[in-house]
Amino acid sequence: MTDQSNTEPGFPLRLTRLINAPVDLVYKAWTQHLAEWFAPRPLTTHLQEVDMRPGGRFRFTMKDPNGPEYPCDGVFLDVVPNRRIVSTDAFLPGWVPSGKPFMVAVTTFEAEGDKTRYTATAMHWSEADRKAHEEMGFHPGWNQVADQLEELVARLKG
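RESULT FIELD:
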């Protein structure tokens, strides 16, 4: 399910799913198997650095088999194991402004019985940024990676 509302502060785009696995397994898949699901196929994710703690850097490249590459660089703002991961491209390590802020990503993991309510929210600096992200393919792309995350969780679950 995707919430397309733009009446909330932060100009959000949001995806939410109920994943048939406990929170700890979904969080493990998200954090320990990032390269396996993060980019929509046929793109692949090549991790250079993932220091998952507040102020820690993430740096990776999504690669298209036909040539284009999409670098991603930023920092984690908040990491609460099995609950929440917040990151942004607005800063580089040492809180140095990146000069190209696009969004703050907030990912939450909430138990619903033996399942997990997974919510991924992209908050933007402006309505124009939100609209640009939507036009870039937020809904199909983020839904596809959520599908890939669910597939991975099912494999890990056995």
